[in-house]
Amino acid sequence: MTILDRYLVRAVLGSVALVMAVLLVLVGLLTFIGEQDDIGVGSYTALDAFWYVLLGLPQLAWELLPIGALIGALVGLGAVARGSELTVIRATGVSVARIAGSALLAGALLIALEVVLGEFLASPLLQAARQHKAFSKFTNVSFGSGGGAWVRDGHLILNVAEQSGERQFGGMLIFELTPEHRLSAIGHAARATAGSDRTWLLNGYAESRFTRDRVLARPPGDRVLESSISADFLGLAVSDPRRLEIATLWQLIRYSYANNLDPRTYLFAFWSRIARTVAIAFAVLLAVPLSLGSLRAAKSGSRMLIGLLIGVALFLLQRLIESGTIVFDLDPVLIAWLPTALLAVVSLGLLARAR
Question: Does residue 41 come out as left (phi exceeding 0), alpha (psi in the -120 to 50 range) or beta?
């Protein structure tokens, strides 16, 4: 690594670290404020809320690093350009491709950080935080092992096999017990959505209710179920594919193919996770032509605003295609790479035109 490489890498990484610190403080503060409604429920205290936010910071850092890399690279390289240092570097015969190569070194280090966060730190710490929060809030429920999430809430026993959204679950089984601990009914819902005031909306719910001399069958329909179990609590035992590590997702994909199951959810999560990591390199590359072009004399605030707008647009596009991939039966691999491919085309196109 030459002196030029070290100088540009230090400029990029220093700005990315500053931007990430600001983003994490802001998002962490908003998360802590959002926990205020839960403080006082069960044994959940303000200190518990603080630890919940703190343990969730690696997951937040993993999610925000692509945006932070774009904004930080724009600020770092923009500061170098505004001081005419990039102009001097170009005047000595250093090509744009050479400057881009130095920026890519910083991008490679950020990709390594993203991998460490996403594959080793974020998931176990977030799981520990959610587990501690749930068991602090709900002391009258318990987990059972095997076959998904088995949760008991008073006279109800719930079994959930998969989580399809933040507050939505599929394949929910409901077992109702009598005060004498005898089975009174078995029900199955195709989809369960957590509502307000400790209620669940069950769609496609069919039930068999047992009496002394016969079984009464209820045709499929909708039902509102009252239960103190929250979506956060059930989510502890039913993993969201977006939060699973690459190795775990690969095992689930192989299992789905081996058992003739639909692997699209896991395929999308697998390739989306890889694509968003690769996107960091193109985010850093995008800062090179922008710093050499129209933003060369712009102030830091303008660069941060442009970087934030681009980052938010990519984030919203990612969320949009996440919800539409399964619904519209799209190719999960192609759609997972779409935001990164768009960023790559824009970055390489502007870099080719940079002078």
Answer: beta
Helix H or strand E segment including 115: helix 96-116
Say how far apart CA 170 and CA 193 lie, in whole Å.
9
Q: Are 225 and 176 in contact (CB under 8 A)?
A: no
**Residue found under tokens 């299992």:** 255
Cβ-based neighbours of 161, under 8 Å, separated by 6 or more: 147, 148, 149, 170, 171, 238
Band (145; pLDDT cuts 50, 70, 90)? very low
pTM for this prediction? 0.76
315-341: b (≥16 Cβ within 10 Å) or e: beebeebbeebeeeebebeebbbbbbe
Q: How far lies 157's CA from each of 2, 167, 261, 344, in Å?
A: 64, 19, 26, 49
In terms of phi and psi (left: phi > 0; alpha: psi -120 to 50; beta: otherwise), the region of 146 is left
pLDDT at residue 146 in the model: 47
List, for residues 262-306, the tens digit of each pLDDT value. Answer: 888 889 889 999 999 999 999 999 888 888 866 555 566 666 677
> Are 252 and 239 a contacting pair, CB within 8 Å?
no
* Number of other CB atoms surrounding residue 255 within 10 Å: 12
Q: Are 176 and 185 in contact (CB under 8 A)?
A: yes
Pairing of strands 149-153, 141-144: antiparallel
> Contact, 136 vs 87, CB < 8 A?
no
Question: pLDDT (tens digit, 9 = 90+) per residue, 175-214?
Answer: 999 888 888 999 999 888 888 767 888 999 999 999 888 8
